Amino acid sequence: MDYPTDLLGFSDRPVWSPDGAWLAYSGSPHFSGEGDCDWGVICVMDPAARVQWPLTPNGMRGERPTWSPDGAMVAFMVAGADGWDIGVAAADGAWMETVVASSGNDLHPTWSPDGRRLAYLSDRQGPGGHYGSVDLYVVDLDSGEDRLVLDLDADIGEPRWSPADERIALVASVDGAYEVMAVDADGANLRNLTDHAAAD
After folding, report:
1. What is the arithmetic mean of pLDDT over 65-87?
2. Going by C-beta distance under 8 Å and a sequence separation of 6 or more, which residues neighbour residue 119?
3. Which of 41, 48, 78, 106 could bridge across to 87 with cysteines, CB 3.0–4.6 Å?
4. Model pTM?
5. Are 127 and 154 in contact (CB under 8 A)?
6. 11-153 carries CATH number 2.120.10.30
7. Which residues contact 116 (CB under 8 A, 6 or more apart)?
């Protein structure tokens, strides 16, 4: 099999661009191409041209890349001074900025379908940060407004937007069982969609 990265080292979570032309990933591909994609750097590659380039500058570590709906940008977790932050970069590597940098860990960004907001998880309200109980936040990329959407005092994960940008589904631990829940993007109308004793 012809792996497009000729992977010799660690690589993680490759994701295709919406048009299927490019791959974003975190890893150490070690092949001749553009840029310097060391271990943990967020990179994009063009498999057809067999070239790659970094999105995180100066060897900055990143994880969990995810493409914007139009394929123009990539969001990801990026190592910051106080834990994980949320970064966004142009897919061609022209620029990168940190859009969320709290006192805790900001994790698992996911794009709204219109590409204007990111939902993500953060443990900034927990004791000392660093992987305690996480809450759901939404950051508006146009205004920079960063808003707490849901504080359940529970283990939550896997936020996903509805196609109309109106609601966010997630998994939450409720009374020892994992349930599928949905909440409006402004934090209203939380519903437990599965609500039974077995894990979902």
Report:
1. 95
2. 109, 110, 112, 136, 137, 138, 149, 159, 161, 168, 185
3. 78
4. 0.86
5. no
6. yes
7. 140, 141, 142
